[in-house]
Amino acid sequence: MHPKDNQLTFIMKPFNSAFKLFLGIFSLLQLNSPFAFSQSLEVKIDSLLETTFTPVGPGAVFLVAKAGEPIYRKAFGKANLELNVSMTPANVFEIGSMTKQFTAISILMLLEQGKLQLDDEITKFIPDYPTQGKRITVHHLLTHTSGIKSFTSMKSLRAIERQDLTPTELVDFFKNQPMDFEPGEEFKYNNSGYVVLGYIIEKLSGKTFADFVQDNIFQKLGMNSSQYASHSQVIENRAYGYHQKDNYVNKNYISLSLPYSSGSLMSTVDDMLKWNEALKKNSLIKAETKANAFENHTLNNGDKINYGYGWHISNIDDSPSLEHGGSIFGFKSMGVYLPEEDIYVIGFSNCDCNSPTTLTRDIAHLTLENF
């Protein structure tokens, strides 16, 4: 070997050692970086969702945000089976009962404007409402403790499901039903209560529920892909809804005047993140007013009901969580917010055969593990 080769070998040995040390330190830093955590989280979430949503079936969109910034945003499956159109993160879904969040905050806006009080009896706004001698308040409606019969549990609903009703006609449909219990005695999830709230919003604001939410929430927050749902309107990026029987079928038709303020809004995961951020930053109502929505309210006997105004009050891995889902023909939705960790998870599905409820909570759990 040439002497210079010996010299080169001597020089390269310490260089190689130093380079390997550098690579080791770099790899260690990378593994402990937020980027590496998000890569690991992405793989875990992908694995979870790909077991439910296939490339050829109805799909879903999921978004995870930390401190208001998306760290996961993906679409799965098809937005339209007949046209073979793949889902994208920008697709618009009917969100069902997640509408109740917007109805509740609209009521709290009217509270701040001095147009109502939470302990006002509903007969203040609907004088002819037959309360059967009971004292039913706005608070009872918001917390599903009114005892009013939920119209979605009535067998006669099938007779009107395709009819376009005014809010007055919809209230008239259920108002004479026997009450399920004394106001404040029980918690029973109730779509009728949120219909009455929508009717109150219209009476006090002079606007339709759709226009009130559009003007005071969607437009103000730049939620440009959100609106009151429509069957006839051409809606950009609309995801079509499906049922699964032996095969997938198009969703059943129901007049969107029936879900009304209990379940007739449409949105995207991006717009819902804007919504969550606006609530977090008190952009729409004051913090002390908002506290009513996120308080775990009580029954007459003092028992907690695990519900605020438009949100379930729960926990994931001992972390407090604010949650709500939605279900309407052809669509299911679920949102989870962990306020202490500032983690938001939202999932939409365009087949009511694939509920995102458990998946969304599982993703929140995975996200907690990674931060």
From TrEMBL:
Residues 58-353 form the Beta-lactamase-related domain. Transmembrane segments: none annotated. It comes from the Bacteria. Gene3D superfamilies: DD-peptidase/beta-lactamase superfamily (3.40.710.10). Pfam families: Beta-lactamase. This is CubicO group peptidase, beta-lactamase class C family.
